[in-house]
Fold this protein.
Amino acid sequence: MPFRALLFMSALLLAWPAAGAAAEEALPPARIRIDQLIGETQKTSSSTEIVDVVWWIPSQFWAAALAKDEDVPEASRREILELFDKYTVVAAVHGRIGSFGVSGFTSEAEVRKSLRLVDAEGTEHAPLAEDRLDPRLKVVTQILRPMLANAIGQMGSNLNFYAFPARRKDGRPVADPLGQGRLTVHMMGNEYAFRLPLGSLLPPRHDPQTGEVFPGSYRFNPYTGTALEAEPATPR
């Protein structure tokens, strides 16, 4: 391979999220951009025959949402965060596309049967049975469903929430948004992967030469190979 081509390939590889990202200080909840976080944690199908939505909802989502709502009492805030720290939550819907749009949705039970979460270590996890869940979790998801229906219509009405364990048997997180590698969700024969760490949870990085800003999980400018500089997680 020519030397210049080798340099270019190296720059591209260095642009991918680096292994040291998780060691950095994460953004405080109030500084997390919820739209960017949703963009990283929501996947959809590209097929012309099916319509899938898979949304991994890490506990940082709830922390960020609550930080932006001053009307929530502190005691309620703590209770909600403690609840979602107990689970890895994935919302999912699988539909079929007909001649005039979505022709039908797969039942909650069928999706549940097919749903598997594969952690960064390659261990597969099945959804927890509903009778093993904290009853408060069902209350929250029931509140969310009509809100999602108003936001995204029929898809939101058929979106179901599934809870997986928060931790592996060795005590490590099943889905660590500040970890390394990737988290994968398998549903109805399709695979949806999330690259870790999530850049939206880390301070953004900027190119000191061009001023361009990149997600916090990047180490180098993917176009020039220039080392990026991180902004402080907490403004000084």
